[in-house]
């Protein structure tokens, strides 16, 4: 029994298909027609009570099933009409008499109007809306993916939520693609209903006159009522399903059910309602106008608009609490000393010498984004980012000092690392930032700018243009997200500068709680805190997580037995973190890279020079220019693939090539073959080599 229930829908579809072949008695057909009407009403009500399309994701499949159901009933009713002299059941007879009201001509005209409304207005419109929604949803997918990646990297969301949002985007694309095809079924159903109606009428007249022998008036009356009734019980569910189709593909920008949205948004505009009521009353006073209806409706709208306006005025006029007398008039002994008196004490002057690790200044207009008492969420977002970064990189970002800057413009902000400005930006609080896609579907009005974190061409747009921008394929983000993303990317870029001796000792002390023997063997016998800080800084600078500190110390101990060179030890540490490095840069088991020609690698290796300060790369300017120029061209391929640019070299020269490349392209990561696990498929999309003249000179 349970197995039958689990497959009830599948069995029902098979039974519906059989309706096309098996004759149905009139009582059974009556019940199924009522079921069809009930099902269409239920589907329409569901589409009006959902807030987004994915809440009713089975709709495309349900659309096919209900269409097949209607066609099956159409065929069964046609069989009864033609074989039983127009007697196809009580429901069809009642609907036919209801629409004709004793006048067949009027009944036929009303029926044709209903059919044309269904076919030309509702079905055609739903089909067009589905096509546009499917196209714009697919075009907006890359921008939405980029927004998810930005939120994840800035710590606004975690990996689980990012995975859920990516899954939702994919489901949306699949849904609207299916809806685009499903609307073609609705259109075909409407055409088929017209054909069946014509068949019922024409064939019924022929059968009634030729085979039944009745007079023309009687036959025309019987078959007209049956045909109109059959068409009506078919077109009414089709009309409601078509309306539901158009309804569901327009729910992407709603916050609640249709009832809630309509009532809420009309209530938010009481002045418009009041103005409409006044206009109707004035029209009612015009001579010759229908005075009573206009004044009745106008008075009702005016009263409703007036009440709504009064409520909005009362809500806006919130009384301010009087300040406390103690706060208004502080006691003399509680007053702070003057600035001159404060700095008379030389010890207080030393407080001016402290430098904040991270500092962010805001213009006056941006303070509400920071002030928690005003609803600002920047601080809570920073906390989330700090936690996410610690989990990913193994480094705890120090506290960030947030304060207003009197010298800044009202919409400007500045980010400082250790007292020096490293980044700045400008934000329009009352606008949204729309990131331009590669091929926008339309142009949106706004103030042209550049997204500060990634340098993407963008526009500041008004809130009322947000929905249209998303339809055109723009990725729209809030001012707070823009600022937080810029802050998080700046911190990631300069994280190695924030790692000091105190933090290094703290990391080691934290490890000592679980692995005291390892720490005792490594520090200070093999590596000092100063050298460990250099190694960790080098890793952070190139985006390598230092979370697995035990593996780092073990690699330092192994490498320390053969060399004291910090650069060589760091390369050994990177090789021990191959799984971590591979996970960070590899996508779906593939790693797309640019490689160096063997002859060029040999040339670089021979250019390594050692002095009392260590080893450095003494490459000729001509060869360096060739490498940088070719890398710049190949870097564009990575941008087209939306992937991190990676240059793959041998371990011996990796660190020296990295130092050279970083001067020109800080976003290019240089990895060695030893840092990639063996299960990764490496795909070279380009190769940098010496030009012919350099080969001859060599």
From TrEMBL:
GO cellular component: plasma membrane
TM helices/strands, residue ranges: 7-25, 31-50, 62-82, 102-122, 191-212, 232-250, 271-289
Pfam families linked: FHIPEP
Primary localisation category: membrane
GO biological process, one term: protein secretion
Membrane topology annotation: Multi-pass membrane protein
Keywords: Bacterial flagellum biogenesis, Bacterial flagellum protein export, Cell membrane, Cell projection, Cilium, Flagellum, Membrane, Protein transport, Transmembrane, Transmembrane helix, Transport
Chain segments carrying region Disordered: 314-334
Location relative to the cell: Cell membrane
Record keyword Transmembrane present: yes
Gene3D superfamilies given in the database record: FHIPEP family, domain 1, FHIPEP family, domain 3, FHIPEP family, domain 4
Highest taxon, organism lineage: Bacteria
Keyword Lyase in record: no
PROSITE patterns reported for this sequence: FHIPEP
InterPro entries reported for this sequence: FHIPEP_1 (IPR042194), FHIPEP_3 (IPR042193), FHIPEP_4 (IPR042196), FHIPEP_CS (IPR025505), FlhA (IPR006301), T3SS_FHIPEP (IPR001712)
Known role: Required for formation of the rod structure of the flagellar apparatus. Together with FliI and FliH, may constitute the export apparatus of flagellin.
PANTHER family per record: FLAGELLAR BIOSYNTHESIS PROTEIN FLHA-RELATED, FLAGELLAR EXPORT PROTEIN, MEMBRANE FLHA SUBUNIT-RELATED
Family statement drawn from the similarity comment of this UniProt entry: Belongs to the FHIPEP (flagella/HR/invasion proteins export pore) family.
Protein name per the record: Flagellar biosynthesis protein FlhA
Gene that specifies this protein: flhA
């Amino acid at each position: 029994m349970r197995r039958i229930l689990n497959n009830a829908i599948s069995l029902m579809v098979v039974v519906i298909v059989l309706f096309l072949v098996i004759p149905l008695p009139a009582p059974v057909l009556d019940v199924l027609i009522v079921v069809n009407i009930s099902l269409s009403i239920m589907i329409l009500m569901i589409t009006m009570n959902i807030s987004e399309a994915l809440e009713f994701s089975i709709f495309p499949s349900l659309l096919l099933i209900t269409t097949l159901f209607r066609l099956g009933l159409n065929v069964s009713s046609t069989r009864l009409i033609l074989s039983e002299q127009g007697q196809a059941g009580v429901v069809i007879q009642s609907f036919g008499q209801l629409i004709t009201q004793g006048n067949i001509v009027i009944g036929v005209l009303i029926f044709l109007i209903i059919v044309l409304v269904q076919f030309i207005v509702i079905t055609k419109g739903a089909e067009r809306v589905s096509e546009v929604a499917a196209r714009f949803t697919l075009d907006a997918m890359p921008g939405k993916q980029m927004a998810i990646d930005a939120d994840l990297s800035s710590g606004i969301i975690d990996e689980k939520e990012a995975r859920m949002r990516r899954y939702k985007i994919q489901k949306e694309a699949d849904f609207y693609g299916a809806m685009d095809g499903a609307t073609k079924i609705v259109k075909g159903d409407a055409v088929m209903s017209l054909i069946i109606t014509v068949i019922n009428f024409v064939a019924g007249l022929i059968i009634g006159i030729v085979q039944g022998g009745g007079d023309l008036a009687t036959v025309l009356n019987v078959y007209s009522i049956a045909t109109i009734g059959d068409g009506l019980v078919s077109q009414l569910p089709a009309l409601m399903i078509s309306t539901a189709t158009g309804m569901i593909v327009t729910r992407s920008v709603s916050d609640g059910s249709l009832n809630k949205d309509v009532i809420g948004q009309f209530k938010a505009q009481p002045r418009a309602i009041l103005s409409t009521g006044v206009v109707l009353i004035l029209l009612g006073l015009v001579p010759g106008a229908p005075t009573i209806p206009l004044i009745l409706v106008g008075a009702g709208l005016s009263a409703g608009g007036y009440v709504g306006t009064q409520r909005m005025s009362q809500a806006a006029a919130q009384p301010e609490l009087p300040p406390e007398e103690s706060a208004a008039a502080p006691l003399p002994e509680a007053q702070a000393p003057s600035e001159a008196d404060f700095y008379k004490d030389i010890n207080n002057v030393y407080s001016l010498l402290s430098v904040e690790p991270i500092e962010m200044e805001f213009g006056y207009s941006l303070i509400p984004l920071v002030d928690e008492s005003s609803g600002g969420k920047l601080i809570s977002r920073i906390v989330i980012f700090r936690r996410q970064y610690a989990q990913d990189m193994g480094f705890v970002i120090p506290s960030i000092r947030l304060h207003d800057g009197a010298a800044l413009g009202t919409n400007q902000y500045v980010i400082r690392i250790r007292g020096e400005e490293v980044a700045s930006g400008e934000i329009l609080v009352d606008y949204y930032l729309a990131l331009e896609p590669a091929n926008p579907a339309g142009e949106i009005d706004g103030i042209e700018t550049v997204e500060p974190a990634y340098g993407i061409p963008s526009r500041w747009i008004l809130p009322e243009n947000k929905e249209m921008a998303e339809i055109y394929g723009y990725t729209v983000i809030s001012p707070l997200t823009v600022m937080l993303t810029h802050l998080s990317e700046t911190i990631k870029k300069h994280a190695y500068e924030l790692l000091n001796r105190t933090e290094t000792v703290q990391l080691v002390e934290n490890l000592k709680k679980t692995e005291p023997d390892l720490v005792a063997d490594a520090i200070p016998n093999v590596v000092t805190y100063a050298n460990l800080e250099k190694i960790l800084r080098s890793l952070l600078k190139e985006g390598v997580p230092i979370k697995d500190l035990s593996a780092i110390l073990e690699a330092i101990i192994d490498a320390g037995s053969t060399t004291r060179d910090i650069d060589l030890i760091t390369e050994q540490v990177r090789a021990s973190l191959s799984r971590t490095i591979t996970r960070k840069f590899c996508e779906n088991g593939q790693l797309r890279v640019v490689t160096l020609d063997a002859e060029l690698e040999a040339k670089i290796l021979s250019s390594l020079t050692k002095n009392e300060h260590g080893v450095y790369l003494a490459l000729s300017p001509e060869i360096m220019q060739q490498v940088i120029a070719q890398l710049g061209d190949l870097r564009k391929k990575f941008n087209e693939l939306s992937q991190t640019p990676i240059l793959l070299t041998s371990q011996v020269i990796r660190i020296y090539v990295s130092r050279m490349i970083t001067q020109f392209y800080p976003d290019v990561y240089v990895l060695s073959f030893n840092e990639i696990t063996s299960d990764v498929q490496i795909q070279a999309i380009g190769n940098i080599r010496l030009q012919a003249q350099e080969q001859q000179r060599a």
